[in-house]
Amino acid sequence: MRQPLPPRPRLLPLVGALMAAAGLVACGGDDDDDDAARQAELVAEGKQIFRFDTFGDEAKWTDTLRLHEVVGSAVDPTTALAVGLKVDAEALPPDVVAGIGNGSISLTDPATTVALLKLNAVVGLKGTVETVNGQDRLTRLGTTCALCHSTVDDSFAPGIGKRLDGWPNRDLKPGAIIALSPALDAQAKQVFNSWGKGKFDPRFNIDGVNQPVVIPPAYGLEGIHRITLTGDGDDVAYWNRYVAVTQMGGLGTMREPRLNIDITNGTEDRVTSKLPALQAYQLSLPAPTAPAGSFDVAAAERGKAVFEGAGGCAACHSGPKLTDANIRLHPPSDSVVEPETPSYIARSATKMVRTSPLKGVWQHAPYFHDGSAATLADVVNVYNTKRSLNLSAQQRNDLTEYLKSL
Ligand code: HEC
Ligand code: HEC
Fold it and tell me: Could you give the C-alpha distances from 127 to 55, 60, 144, in angstroms and in order?
């Protein structure tokens, strides 16, 4: 991220422009300034899109799945929190905060959910609430990127707090939410309900195979040019278009010849023009640093040596982001999850796997794309066993502390 530049006399840009026009400027200081301002604007725009834009996906969630009917009449806030939905405390006016605090606003009344949607306070859900005969009714419902890729810091209550964009919502049960739809048959509901917490299958509606993956972070991706577990895209925007159109149901087009995908929703494009800002916002989100005191500093230092030496980790987890993604993808067998049946990797465009970047890895348990390692200690044990590393108990502990420090 660029630092804001100090203010300076207003005449200078004009002088700069005149000199540039005369071919006299080589340093480009003013251009840098303009670039920084444009970049900041783009990031701000992208933040709004990431949090609040549905790309017109109400066509899917409202017109097809009719989720607004259920959410508006039968999902009270307690139920919503139980399926992992989060509430943005900063969107709540003081009287609502007080009402929730003293119990005068009921968290077991579906009308409260509608009121929260009206305040735009449910992270990742966008509702349209109309007042008919003095009664608030939810008439449209859509989803945004924040549904899966934001959570809150629980500062007000569990599930209610300040937004943490880019942090995967590992409490969310996307399948259970979709399964609320009255438009689905029992068989479909069974599949969606099987996904569980923090997992989603972004290929199920394409290939009919059921093998969900954990929702990854959308932070720490700056400088990584292979996106998704399988490196399907060279940039974030590729996958944002994929999800916005094929998963969220946004209006626009996604073509992916490698997977025989050619999908157009609606007659207008509400996705393409938003991708540059959306990407800029995600790339501006740094991986969160490990909280002080959350790991043993001396052990972590020793663990770095294990990571680079006896553990052999740096052979793939190399460079500043601890991934060789920009250099190569790997055959499926390089993932400790394989053999996986059915194989998620085999369903992708590349049919290869990307070495996971590890910055901020302390934050987003469980690990591996199937969530099979509950903790970083489990990760180390899996590698130690599967790769026959023969690390001592001390080495394994040190390596774990190092991972916790990243
Ligand atoms: C219903 C949940 C859900 C929603 C909504 C969603 N995603 Fe994702 N996202 C996922 C899952 C699951 C993956 C993992 C897919 C994979 O790696 O194959 C993913 C992967 C990603 C990645 C790749 C991360 C990496 O490490 O390369 C990015 C970036 C991303 N999503 C951004 C977005 C954006 C932006 C939106 C809105 C346009 C969005 N997602 C909407 C679930 C979701
Ligand atoms: C041959 C290349 C390779 C080596 C060597 C390797 N990794 Fe990995 N690592 C990967 C790949 C590929 C993945 C993604 C696996 C998956 O989810 O399918 C991964 C995933 C991980 C994850 C999970 C990240 C997440 O977001 O869930 C951690 C943690 C990790 N590796 C740590 C290590 C450690 C510690 C070592 C050394 C003991 C190591 N890796 C050695 C390629 C490698």
Answer: 13, 13, 11
355 lines ligand 2 (CB under 6 A): yes
Average pLDDT over residues 146-163: 96
Q: What is the per-residue pLDDT for 29?
A: 61
Specify the residue with its C-alpha closest to ligand 1, atom 3: 148
As a whole number of Å, the CA-based R_g of the chain is: 23
What's the confidence (pLDDT) of residue 30? Answer: 72
pLDDT of 208 over the 90 cut: yes
- 88, 96 in Cβ contact below 8 A? no
- Could you tell me which of 97, 115, 214 has the C-alpha nearest to residue 161? 97
First to last CA, the chain: 19
CA distance 246 to 223: 26
Residues linked to residue 127 through DSSP beta bridges, in sequence order? 141
Show the tokens assigned to 147: 């549904």
Task: Assign 247 a pLDDT band (cuts: 50, 70, 90).
Answer: very high
- Longest CA–CA span in the chain (Å) reads 72
pLDDT of residue 32: 83
Backbone angles phi, psi at 64, to 5 degrees: -90, -55
The rounded distance, in Å, linking the Cα atoms of 21 and 376 is 57
> Is the link from the previous residue into 257 a cis peptide, with omega within 30 of 0?
no
Structure tokens at 370: 């199937």
Q: How high is the pLDDT of residue 235?
A: 96
**pLDDT at residue 23, as a whole number:** 43
Output the ligand 1 site: residues, CB below 6 A: 143, 145, 147-149, 174, 200, 202, 213, 215-216, 218, 221, 227-230, 236, 239-240, 243-244, 248, 278, 282
Which segments of 162-271 are extended strands (E)? 163-165, 199-200, 213-214, 252-256, 261-265
The per-residue pLDDT for range 262-293, each reduced to its tens digit, is: 999 999 999 999 999 999 999 999 999 999 99
Closest residue by Cα to residue 68 from 58, 76, 77: 58
Question: Ligand 2: which atom is nearest the Cα of residue 217?
Answer: 26
- Sign, CA dihedral 375-364-231-192, equals positive
Q: Mean per-residue pLDDT for 92-120?
A: 94
